[in-house]
Amino acid sequence: MPILRFSSILALAAGLCTAQPVLAQSGDRDDILTDIILVTAATRSEAVDTAEPPHHIPLPADTVSLAARAAGGGAVGNGAVSGQFSYRGLFGERVLGRVNGQRFATGGPNAMDPPMHYAPSILVEVLEIARGVAPVSQGPSLAGAVNARLVETGFTRSDRVEASGYLAAQYRSADDSGAVGGRVGLATQDWRIGVIASREEGDDYRFADSRIAGGTLFERNLYGVHAGLKVAGGEVFAEYRRSETDPSGNPPFALDIVYFDTDFLQGGWRGELAPQVALEVKAGHVAVRHLMDNVTLRRPIPVQRRSTFASADTFTADARLRFGSPTRRIAFGADLEEADRFVRITDPTNANFHIDSQPDVEAQRIGGFVEARLGLGALEGEAGLRLDRTTQNAGVPTLGTAVPMGPRGLANAFIASAREASDTTLDAVMRLWLPGDVMTPRLTLARKTRVPSVLERFAWLPTEASYGLADGNIYVGNPALKPEVAWVAEAGMDLDSGGFTFRPTAFYRRVDDYIQGTPFDATPGVIDSTVEMVASMNGDSTPLMFRNVDAELYGLDADFSAMLGARIMLEGTASYVRGKRRDAADNLYRVPPLSARLAAMWHGQGWFTGAEVTAAAKQAKVSATNGETASVGYAVVNLFASVTIAPEVELDAGIENLFDRFYQPHLAGLNRVGASDVPVRQRLPGAGRGVWVRASLRF
After folding, report:
1. Which pLDDT score, from 0 to 100, does residue 214 have?
2. Using an 8 Å Cβ cutoff, are 292 and 254 in contact?
3. Is domain 2-698 given the CATH code 2.40.170.20 in the classification?
4. Mean pLDDT of the chain
5. Own/partner pairs for 677-681, CB < 8 Å, 24+ apart?
6. Strand order in the sheet with 145-150
7. Which residues form a coiled coil (predicted)?
């Protein structure tokens, strides 16, 4: 199992935490196509008082940025707590995101709360990233998958009650932010109970003697309880968490977060029914309540004041039965997911103005899979099939008396439409590898699908809601959309000679019926429809409609590590992806440029220090349809150090952006805040030079 080991990590308020370390590999080859990132010090097992090299690089980063440091990864910067994970050029709902294995619908129509929003890095213990494509057992997804597992109290090996915990705190000067958090619990060999909590808060970040004024401050709390009891050869488990995000700036969006109040509940049973027969059943509910506006942190002119209320409730149930061992098995499973959403746009100064842009929108999915892990002589393989049936429908929107005639006409047309859709999708994945003492070749072939989102189908009102594209364009839905179908092939190898590892992968993904915004009609800029009239009133006379197009993505990524002597280690990654349409002379939107990262570490007795360079080339292959602008290349240098004060106490510190380089990552969102040192519609820059420090305690 490839392992990306991170330092003890305490995130800072904006979600800043450790950085990705050296890639190592264990002898467990059955999960060779999953990257495991150990994040917090709670799981660290390396002996720091020996001559062994360090296995982590302490750097500040939020959870999305941690995942993005894996080969093929990227971070879509939509605000301090709203970043999305990009994988091989795809992001948003195309990448499966979960927390503690739980799927859920985001609460906002612009995905201000993507899955990793609910996984503050100070509380993340492990990040699991499916390399290339996600197995069918994880659920439907077009691309890869990431699962954030939060710190948790485990069982002990005795019948005595034992206490354990992990506490951390961090400060970062770039945005004057801080975070505290951790876990405490009690457990025996038969039962366990624990609590987790974190608090993050930060101001607008600084760059090159300037500031993102009024745009990137944030505040987030999370607390919860988890428990387990061994019963009937297995474990009954349950967990509850409450996440509260208070006013937080989102400069790439027209509105900022006022609050997200979200409750997570999940429980079930897992264990063995008999030797070589394992069962897991679980059910969960996630309730999101959300308010966003442009008046709490901004100062718009009165006619442009807006407050939008949104809610999302997701109910899930899963059951899976496994015959055999984890490395030689056949598994059957079924899962159910139901998501109910509602979005209402209001004018906080006019009680008679309200529009239900997503009126009681519902989506239900029921699916099943079969997946086998087998050995064919020296060859190892995993193959699976998944079948899903999805139904979607929308209710009747209501509008206030102050709403003008244009939106009223669109609402009446929507009410008269069918407002429902259903799809049956089939996914198939085959992964093969040939284990070797030094080199392991591997091959993946897959057919992956994605059903259009309820937003892409039922967005009857032209707005900027686009699940986080944050490009300033106005979009409208299309009930005639077909599911996306991706045909995937990838080949690579894992080379491990002890002191040197190298894992390159080449991939190709052909996507039929790829969903993208395209000009609403054949005469862009000519206002000859109600949709264009309403869009023009909202500042965009060239709205886009979600339509099916044909696309392809291909590229190469790799990671490596190398020991130079007994105390010096090098490690890094490189990623390249090319995304373009097959039906038109255009590029796909927000595809990252060629990027690379290189780190060097020097290990001493109970301490280490090092430096890291991250670089990206320019990106000129941009989407004309989305009005995307090119970006320039950059390189940024970071310094870091770590010292173990006592066996359970560690202190980390560093300097980020040592040379105070001004740079604008290509995947960063475009600024929409006028009172800022960043011009409107320019990419948000990365943070300037700053120092950070954190301390962690394990007991």
Report:
1. 64
2. no
3. yes
4. 90
5. 677/210, 677/211, 677/212, 677/213, 678/210, 678/212, 678/215, 678/251, 681/472
6. 23-25, 2-5, 34-38, 124-130, 145-150, 96-99
7. none
For residue 694, give every residue at least 6 positions away whose Cβ sits within 8 Å of its Cβ, in sequence order, or none.
Answer: 8, 9, 10, 12, 58, 168, 169, 170, 171, 651, 652, 653
Q: What is the DSSP letter of 619?
A: B
Quote the pLDDT of residue 39: 74
Q: Is 275 exposed, middle or buried (0-12, 13-18, 19+ CB in 10 A)?
A: exposed
Please give the Cα distance from 603 to 22 (Å, whole number): 13
Q: How far is CA 391 from the centre of its chain?
A: 25
Nearest residue to 471 (alpha-carbon basis) of 14, 75, 76 = 76
Q: Which whole-number Å values give the CA distances from 567 to 67, 408, 498, 499, 640, in the listed order?
A: 27, 70, 15, 12, 16
Residues 581-595: pLDDT tens digits?
999 999 999 999 999
Residue 514's Cβ-count burial label (10 Å; 0-12, 13-18, 19+) is buried
The 10s digit of each residue's pLDDT in 392-438 is 999 999 999 999 999 999 999 999 999 999 999 999 999 999 999 99
Which two structure tokens, joined as six digits, stand for 560?
Answer: 């490596």
* Long-range pairs for 383-387: beta carbons < 8 A, 24 or more residues apart: 383/428, 383/429, 383/430, 383/431, 384/135, 384/136, 384/137, 384/427, 384/428, 384/429, 385/136, 385/426, 385/427, 385/428, 386/136, 386/140, 386/426, 386/427, 386/428, 387/424, 387/425, 387/426
Q: Are 577 and 666 in contact (CB under 8 A)?
A: no
3 state SS of 75: strand
User: Which residue matches tokens 């990365």?
Assistant: 686
Banded model confidence at residue 10, pLDDT cuts 50, 70, 90:
very low
Structure tokens at 41: 């010090």
Going by pLDDT thresholds of 50, 70 and 90, the confidence category of residue 279 is: very high
Going from N- to C-terminal start, the domains of the chain cover: 2-698
Q: Which of 104, 78, 316 lies closest to 218, judged by CA? A: 78
Q: Percentage of residues in the chain with pLDDT exceeding 70? A: 93
Average pLDDT over every residue of 667-676: 87
Q: How far apart are CA 457 and CA 252, in angstroms?
A: 23
Query: Considering only 250-254, 306-310, 451-455, which range has the smallest mean pLDDT?
Result: 250-254
Return the structure tokens found at 615: 């670089």
Kindly report the backbone phi and psi dihedral angles of residue 321, in degrees, each rounded to the nearest multiple of 5, phi listed first.
Answer: -120, 130
| 519-530 average pLDDT score | 93
Give the integer Cα–Cα distance in Å for 183 and 698.
10
User: Per-residue pLDDT tens for 38-60?
Assistant: 776 444 433 333 334 445 677 77
Report strand pairing: 634-646 vs 379-393: unpaired
| CA–CA separation, 257 and 296 (whole Å) | 9
> Which tens digit of pLDDT belongs to each residue from 451-474?
999 999 999 999 999 988 888 899
* Three-class SS of 439-497: EEEEEEEEEEEECCCHHHHHCCCCECCCCCCCCCCCEECCCCCCCEEEEEEEEEEEEEC
- Given this model, what pLDDT does residue 232 score? 85
Q: Measured in Å, how far apart are the chain's first and last C-alpha atoms?
A: 27
